Every structure is written in structure tokens, then in C-alpha cells.
Amino acid sequence: MPLLDIRNLQLEFGTGKDALRAVDGVSFTIAEGETLCLVGESGCGKSVSALSIARLVPTPPARYVGGEILLNGRDVLKMDQRELRSIRGGVVSYIFQEPSASLNPVFRVGNQIKESLKLHRPQFATDEEVIRLLKLVGIPAPESRIRDYPHQMSGGMQQRIMIAMALASEPKLLVADEPTTALDVTIQAQILELLRELKQRLRMSILLITHNLGIVGDIADRVAVMYAGQIVELSPARALLQRPLHPYTQALMNSVPQLGHELDRLQAIPGNVPNLGQFPSGCRFHPRCPKAQSDCSQKAPELVEVEPGRWVRCPYWK
Amino acid sequence: MGTFILKRLLHMIPILLGVSLLTFLLMSLTPGGYLQSLKQNPQISPETVEKLLAKFHLDKPWYVQYCYWLKNVAVGDFGYSVQYKISATDLITARLWNTFLLSFFATVVAWFVAVPLGIWAAVNKDSLVDRACSLIAFAGLSIPEILLALLALMFAAATGWFPIGGAQGSLYDLMTPTERFWNRAHHLVLPVLVLAASELAGIMRQMRSNLLDTLRAEYVTAARAKGLPEGWVIYKHALRNAINPLLTIFGYSLAHLLSGAFIVENIMAWPGLGRLTIEAYSAKDSMLVVDSVVMATALLIVGNFVADLMLAWSDPRIRLKE
Fold it and tell me: Are A20 and A14 in contact (CB under 8 A)?
């Protein structure tokens, strides 16, 4: 049994005729110790899918229309508040894009970490444990840092604090929602390095959300590419990077500069991501797709396993 | 911290100097004066008036008068009220205390009602409670204090439950200390409620929108993601941040309270600073006008200063610059 098994998740914002479907039939699994990267442009539904794992999307305005989110075999969508609180932090922890916005500005960082300890490992809610966690995430002189306020730290430090806070409860799954987007490039590399190291040391599963394909090769075991609320390609990371199958993944790869492949111009994907509620008929990517055929606008393709472990939502992938 | 407080207090001096100078200038530009009007009284000889004018330096140009005033104020003497014929210092002290009582209790009532209501409305956004609160708030914001004060007087007159105006009963001097206390409290009720009502609406709306903002903040999602119970998320993480902007507003609301007190004091015959200022102005008791304006300014500055200190204490991102 995989640690996380999302089956046909459907989520809408609003109700009735105005309802906008942000997540439409998303399914993926994460095994214990596995790292899955969820890749896609802004607004494709990747953050909402990830927040759904601990049911953190506010309802209303959102509404779960269908599907299951099995965490350790239990459906998160059917849990009561008590059970939800115990899995939040207890089984799945989050780190977010803006560390400066995700730490509460009026509390000392040590206390914010201790709060997590009190909830999930009360016997360890001590300064010593907080200092151990700060050392684990590579904060220099942790003894003097626990009484700092978030604004006294740099962005990279703040993100390390967020990671320490997420690890404090010893979760089985760490969801990192664009954890490096707000940081500059050298700090990005340090944080990724830290995540990779922690993953090995703590044998933790990671769901990493990113719009940066460059990160994928560094850390991911498998990759799910999302477009307009659907997964369009799901594949082992190495295979996907070497030979992307879906036209959208291929277009994404062509828009990233690569060492060794000297290009005069990077290729932008024509057009824009369709807005919620204005998805084209048939295949949602067909208006921007270089390989579109005449029937792409009529028939909505299914996600099909075309090679062992490789799933593609495009009948013309060859 | 100590240096900060000292510096802020020193900053009060130029502000007070400026305000007093300006008030002095404006008063001197208006025609006539209290003693000038005595000249029209056939029972008072012109020589007596001249003597009085000379005694209070009112025959000198305004800037000379100002210097005399300043010299006296420096040693704690606020001059002499020609209208009341007593020391302005005593007069002002008594009136300042009354205005302070009125504003203080109005603030306490307004904040203790408005903050919980605002929180309640935000947590139950769009519910019946929230809508009822909005309705009350808009009513409170749109009914002028004048009307509210008049309604309160009508209420007092119709029911007889509260005294109609004034700060103490006519037999006050004969009462025991306990009776005096209850008598004053009884007189305070209506003016405080009228003044608090107009304050309340604004603070409540502000509290509601601040809390709604912080409830959308990412650290609130992060707090939920830790597994904190919803009550902790709202009352610890969100509320602690939503309170900070209100502390800044506290300073402003003090200004509003003082100007509101002017109106309420006049209609409800509350012997406070506002009423004194207006009486002094209409009697052309210029020294007293300057004194009361300076006092009101001082009250305002101190209030803002207290608000700043509270904010610095509450929000670690605010550093008191020395």
C-alpha cells in the first residue's frame, strides 16, 4: 500500500453554474521514501492538489466534488476535524513558497517550532530538541537563534526554520510547495541540497511542487506534469527528462536552457494557460500544441500507460 | 527604551510651543476682548479698565503677551481667567480631569464592546451575526454625535433614570464620599455611552477587517497545517497580528474622542475641557482659550505616545528608534 494514494480527485471553486473546476480527475501515488515532483505552470491546480492532502483548501469557496485521498489507507476527505488535526503535522507536513509570510511575525521562531512539538511529540517540547532540529537543518549557532523573531533572519534561514518546524512532528510525507521560488539561486541550491539530504537521512517521502523543471533532475524519483487541472504525463524522472512524451512536457523542456545544448533562442510555448472555466473542448492543450490533429478539439484524451510506469494523456505521443 | 521615552517627551515641547503660538496669534487677530467689552459698561470707569488691561499685559502687542504667558507657564502658572476671576491653572485642572474621565471611560466601553464584536463578526463572516453587526456599525457611523446626545437627553428626561446633564448633583457638597462616588458615576453614564457609541462602530469594523485579512495570511494556513485546533489558529496566530493595526488606530481614536467630547460636553452640560474652551472663546477670555487648546494638544500627544509604546511592545518588528 502506498503512503499516499490520490484517486480521481475533483475540486471546484464556487457552486452551481458558476463552479470552476480547478482539479479535474487527478490521480497519483507516493510510496514511502519516494520523492514525487508535481510540475506545471501557475494556476494549473498543483498547489490546490497538494493542499488537499491535509484538506487545507478552505471550503467554501472550494468544494470536493469527487475522488479519494488515501493517506495510510484512510480517506482524508471523510475524516472528522479531530482526525484531520492529528494527520496535519503528524503524517504530512508542509513548507510553503514565501518563508517570510509563512512564519508568524509576532512569535519567536523557537516557540513556533516548539508549538509543533507540543502537538505531536509533547515529551520532546524542549529547547534542546528545538536546537537539535535547528542543527539538523543547518542553522549556525542555533542556541542564540531560538529567541529570534522571523524578521531578524534572511529568507534562506527562514525557509530552514520552516523546514525544521515541518520536521519537528516527524511526518511521513513532506509537502514542499515551491520552497525555493522566493529565494535567490545560491540559496535555492542549498535548500534543495538540504531536502535531498534529509530525505535520505529520515527516509521521508517528499511531494515537491515546482514550475522549474531544472529542479526535477536534482531530487525527484518520479514526475507528474499538470496542465489545466489534469495530469498530462506521469513518469519516472530520469525517463521523462531524457525523453518527454507529451507535447506539453516537450514544450516545457524546450523552454528551459540546458548546459551543453547551445540554442540561439529558447522556445516559448505559444498562447497562455487557459483560465479556470474557459478550458478548450477536447484536449485542453490543443490550441497551443504543435502536434495537434484535427480531432484533438473534439475528443478529450485519457491518461494511458504507454510504457511500463509511463502515463501520457495524448493519443499522438509517438 | 528610556532614551526613546525621554526623546519623545522632549519632542512634545516644540509642538506645544507651535500650537500655543498659533492660538495666541489667532486670538489676537479677532476683534475685541473680555475687558474691551467692559468699556461699554457705564458703571466701570475707563481708568479701571485701563488698569486691568495693564495688569494682565493686555495693552501690549500679542507677542509680548505671549512671552509673558510663556514665562508663567514655565513655572506652572497658566494665568488668570478674567471671566471666571480665578486662577486658570485650577480651572483647567478640574476640567481636564472631567474630560479625562469622560474620554477614558468612553474608550474603555467602546473597545471592550467593539473588539469582541469585531472578532465575532469576522469569525462568523456573512452570518446573521455579522450582518447585524454591520448594520449597527453603519448606523453608529452615520448618526452624528449631536443627534445621539440630544436623544440621550430626551431619554433621560422621559424616564428620569439618569440626570439631565452636569457632572454632579446639586447637593454634592453635602454627600458622604460613597454617595459622591455613585453620584458622579450616575452622571457619567449617558455622556460615556453617547461618546462610546460613535467610537465603537469604527473600531468594530476595523477589528473585523483586520482579522479577516490575517485569517487569509499564509502563516495562518501554516498554523493549520501544523495541526493546531481552529481556536488556537484564530485566537493565537491570527488575532495577535490583527490587534497591531488597532493599536495605531488607538492614537487616532483619541483625537476623535476629544473632538467628540467637545460636542457631547456642550450638549450634555459636562463641565469638561471642550465646554470650557467654547465658553472661554465666546467670552473672549483669550488666556483660557490658549490654555485649554494647549492642554487638549498635550492630551492628544500623550495618547499617541502611549499608542506607540503599546505597538512597540506588541509587535516585535517595531523597534523603538533612539
Answer: yes
